Every structure is written in C-alpha cells, then in structure tokens.
C-alpha cells in the first residue's frame, strides 16, 4: 500500500485507522510500562523506535563501566551538560559499553600523534573495535553549550590519557597545552588582531598616494586587495607600472604592503615582522616573487603563535569534504612554528580576505594538515 503523510492523516481523521497507527507505518513503536519501586502503579508510554533503541542500549550497558567513564569525563573540565550531549551521541550507536571501555583505557599522547598516516579515525576504530560511524560522530562532535569547545577537542579529551579542557590552549595533556584547529578554523586569537576592512582602507589610501606620486592617471575604482592562491591582488597588478615611472620605488610598494598588514596584525613590528620578509619577496619592479605567499603564511602563523601561549598546534580534517583530509591530523611544536619548519605538516587552506563581507575571522588564514592525496 502506498502511504503518504497526507493520506495517513486523512484516514486517521475519518476514523479509518486508529490513533498512533502512523507510528507503525513510518517506523516501529513500542508500548513501555515503567514505575519507580515506590510508585503504586505502572505508567504506560508509547515510544518510537529510535527512542526505544537508545533506551535499550542504556539499560543493557554495564553500569559499573559506565559509572567509571562518567567520573573520568567529569574530571576533564567538560560541563555536566556537555557530557550529556556527548553521551547522547554515544547511545545513538550499538555497544556503547565499548566506548566506556575505551574511555577507561585511553592511549598515550605519543600513540595518538603517531597515528599511521595521521588517520585518527582508523586509529581509534581499530584500537577499540568501535563502530567507525561512532568514531566519525565523535570527531565531529561540538557541544552546543558553553564554554566553547570546537570539533576535535572532545575527541582528544576522550581518547588521550591525561587530556582535559585547556586553560591556555584548547586541550591540556599532562600540563602541555595544545591548540586544536578543525576544518576551516582560522588562526586568529582574542588579542592583537584588527579588522581586515581597516587593512583594505590603508591599502587604498596608500595606493592612491603612490598613484599621485607616480604622475599617472589611474582610477582604481573598488579594487580587490585579496592575496590568494590564484591571485596576487590589485597592488601587484599595477606595481610595475608605478615603479616604471621612476617616481615610485620598490621600497614604496613594500611599505604599502606593510602598512595595510599592520592594520590587521596590530602588534606586528613594521621592520622586523613585516618589511623583513616583504622586501625580500618583491622583485625590482615591485611585483611579488613566487615565495611571497609562502612567507606571508609563515609570518601569519608565527604572529598567531606569538599572540597565544599554547605549546603545540594541532590541525585536523573534521569535515567529510575533501575526503582525503577527513580524519587526518598533524601537529607541530611551538618552537618549530617560530623557526618556520612546519610546511611539511601544515599548510594554508583558505587565504585571508580584505573584503567587507569576509567577517572578523575571514581576515586570517585557515590551516589544514599536509596530506598527500
């Protein structure tokens, strides 16, 4: 029989099917009776299939293992509400006791960060015999309640011995702070970062001054200053034309870039933090060399690290797309970021935007693990 929701409703209204019959058509329903020991009578309840299955998993799980696991979760700094949210995910899958056994048998931080091919999904699923779909759900789990906890953070807290909610970084593991960046997370901290719109204004004002200095008549209109994978931005498009007049120098172009970036990276030193790499990555015509964007990214990552106090930076693919990054992880110590020795493990994902619609986070790079396809 072809049952549509409209037909079910109309048949029920006409009395041709009994109330709640639609529960049986769309999915199994169960009659449940329950009471406390102190209650004189049972309460009858109609329960849908999904609710019943979740309740059955809860009731079948070994309470001693569950209780030990909950105590361990309470010691991590997650709130009671966040723990409830997490367990609600766990009970969506069969054999929840395997999750609690894993929680009571966590792996070392070294084992986690040495996951074969950097694949934390396979590592956890294979080590504990967990349903892979559950592991994926846990990797992508992000509590709805405060304090803010991003994707990948709870995953590390659950499976790494000594891990808890961090006070400086996102996760504290035996006193060492780890900053965790999931897919599309930007390297922007709570201090030292200005608006990208201020950077765009500085670029525009400085560019108009150089055009006037050059003696050329150029109407720039509403230029796009974004420096991205396939575009060098508007300044690079006319830099050689300005320098060719002899009235504008390569140094003028370098100062223009530094002035605009200083608005975004407020605590950066013009000379040591900005001009030191900008000058060396412009040719004599004022155009970007092939290494400009690499040095731009390294500067931004070092700046972020200097503004924050974490010991390690972790980047994870926490979104199903692109598939080759999903569940993959890389991490680098703070010292190696500051030395610039990280491009074999971490690379830029999304480049900063200077457009008004980018928002506060859009003015900075996002990062991703470097994984060979």
Layout of strands and helices, then pairs:
Blueprint: H1 5-13, H2 21-26, E1 29-34, E2 43-48, H3 49-60, H4 63-74, H5 80-90, H6 96-103, H7 109-113, H8 120-128, H9 132-139, H10 153-159, E3 163-165, E4 171-173, E5 176-181, H11 196-214, H12 234-244, H13 250-264, H14 270-278, H15 292-307, E6 312-316, E7 329-333, H16 334-339, E8 346-348, H17 359-362, E9 367-369
Parallel strand pairs: 5-6
Antiparallel strand pairs: 1-2, 3-4, 4-5, 6-7, 8-9
Give a description of the structure:
The chain contains 17 helices and nine strands. Residues 15-26 have low confidence and may be disordered. The strands form three sheets. It has a five-stranded mixed beta sheet with strand order 3-4-5-6-7. Strands 1-2 form a two-stranded antiparallel sheet. The protein folds into two domains: 61-174, no CATH class; 196-369, no CATH class. Helices cover 45% and strands 11% of the residues. The longest helix has 19 residues, at 196-214. The protein is α+β, with helices and mostly antiparallel strands.
């Amino acid at each position: 029989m072809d049952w549509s929701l409209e037909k079910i409703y109309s048949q029920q209204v006409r009395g041709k099917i009994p109330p709640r019959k639609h529960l049986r058509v769309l999915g199994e329903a169960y009659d449940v009776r329950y009471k406390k020991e102190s209650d004189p009578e049972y309460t009858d309840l109609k329960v849908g299939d999904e609710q019943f299955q979740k309740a059955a998993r809860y009731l079948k799980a070994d309470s001693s293992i569950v209780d030990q696991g909950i105590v361990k979760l309470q010691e991590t700094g997650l709130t009671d509400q966040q723990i409830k949210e997490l367990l609600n995910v766990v009970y969506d899958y069969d054999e929840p006791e395997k999750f609690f056994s894993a929680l009571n048998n966590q792996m070392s931080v070294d084992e986690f960060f040495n996951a074969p091919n950097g694949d934390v999904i396979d590592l956890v699923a294979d080590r504990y015999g967990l349903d892979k779909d559950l592991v994926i759900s846990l990797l992508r789990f992000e509590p709805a309640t405060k304090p803010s906890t991003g994707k990948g953070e709870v995953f590390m807290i659950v499976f790494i011995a000594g891990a808890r909610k961090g006070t400086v970084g996102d996760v504290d593991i035996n006193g060492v702070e780890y900053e965790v960046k999931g897919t599309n997370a930007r390297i922007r901290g709570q201090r030292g970062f200005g608006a990208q719109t201020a950077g765009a204004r500085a670029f525009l004002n400085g560019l108009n001054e150089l055009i006037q200095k050059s003696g050329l008549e150029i109407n720039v209109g509403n230029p796009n200053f974004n420096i991205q994978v396939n575009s060098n931005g508007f300044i690079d498009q006319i830099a050689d034309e300005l320098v060719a007049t002899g009235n504008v120098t390569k140094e003028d172009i370098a100062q223009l870039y530094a002035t605009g970036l200083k608005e975004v990276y407020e605590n950066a030193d013009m000379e040591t933090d900005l001009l030191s790499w900008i000058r060396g990555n412009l040719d004599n015509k004022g155009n970007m060399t092939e290494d400009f964007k690499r040095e731009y990214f390294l500067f931004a990552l070092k700046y972020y690290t200097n503004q924050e106090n974490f010991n390690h930076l972790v980047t994870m693919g926490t979104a199903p797309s692109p598939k080759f990054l999903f569940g993959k992880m890389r991490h680098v110590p703070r010292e190696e970021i500051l030395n610039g020795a990280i491009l074999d493990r971490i690379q830029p994902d999304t480049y900063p935007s200077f457009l008004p619609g980018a928002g506060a986070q859009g003015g900075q790079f996002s990062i991703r693990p470097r994984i060979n396809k």
